[in-house]
Amino acid sequence: VMMMMMMIRRVSTTSSPSATAFGSFMKWSFKSSHFHGESLDSSVSPLLIPGVHVFHCPDVVGIVAKLSDCIAAKGGNILGYDVFVPENKNVFYSRSEFIFDPVKWPRSQMGEDFETIARKFNAMSSVVRVPSLDPKYKIALLLSKQDHCLVEMLHKWQDGKLPVDITCVISNHERAPNTHIMRFLQRHGISYHYLPTTDQNKIEEEILELVKDTDFIVLARYMQVLSGNFLKGYGKDVINIHHGLLPSFKGRSPAKQVERVSHRDNLRSFVQKSEDLEKKCLMKAIKSYCELRILPYGTYKTVVF
Questions:
Q1: Is 188 exposed, middle or buried (0-12, 13-18, 19+ CB in 10 A)?
Q2: Is 253 exposed, middle or buried (0-12, 13-18, 19+ CB in 10 A)?
Q3: Separation CA 8–CA 241 (nearest Å)
Q4: Is the whole-model pTM more than 0.70?
Q5: CA 291/CA 278 separation, integer angstroms
C-alpha cells in the first residue's frame, strides 16, 4: 500500500476555519502524543453532539490542562486528543474531539470560551467546529477533461458522505447537456460554467467572481496552473490532486507508474488504477480538511492529525 499525498495551497491567514494558513502537503514532521476513546463517528447519546477544536500557540506549560478543563467544566467529554510539539521549536499544536450537551453549553458560548483561552496563550489559531450545528463548507469544483474525480465527489456528496455544499462546477471543457454529469448537476441545482481558456487568457477574473462566496476550491483534475494573483485574489484554500504529488507517480506518463501491478495488467488497467488512487486521495483530503485534521507548520509543511 503506497502512501498518498495531496496539496493544499494557502495564501492568507485569519481566525476562521477556511482561512487558516496552510502550506503545501509536500512533507510533514510528526511527533504526536495522543489518547483516544471513541471516534466522532461513533453513536452517542441523542442529547450529546460531537465537536472538534484545533489550537496553535507558543508552547508553554498548562495548555492541555486548560483546554481539557474548559470542556469538562461545561459537562463535555473528550473522545480523542492529539498533541504535536516539534523538537527545538517553541510551538504547540493540538486537536481535540469531544461530545457535549448544546443546552448546557450553547454554541455561541463555546466559541467565547475557547477564544478566552486563545487570548491567554497568545494563540496563532483557535478553531472550533460543531458539524451538526455549523454551516457546511461551501466549495467550488474546477475540472478539465477527465471526469473521474468529479463523478466520485458528486456521488459521495449525494450519499451524504462529503460534508460540503457544492455551489458550482467550473470547467475549461464543454460538456453535452444530455450527459450523466450534466443531468446530475441540473437535477440537484448545481450550476455548470464552461470557461474556455487559452495560453494568453486563463479566465481567472471570471473564475474569481464565481467562487468569491466559497470557503475553499477543489481542483478535481483541473489541468491549468492558477497564478499567484489568482491565489492572492481568492485568499482562501485550494485543494489539488495531481500525480506529481503522489510518491509513485513521478515524472511523465503517470498511468504507467501506479501501485502494485502484475503481468496481467495493461495500460488500460494502469489508467484505471491511477484514477482510483486519485479519487481516493482527493476524497480523503477533503474529508480531512473539513474535520480540521490539517494544520500549518512553517511555510511548506503541515501537521496532519
A1: exposed
A2: exposed
A3: 9
A4: yes
A5: 20
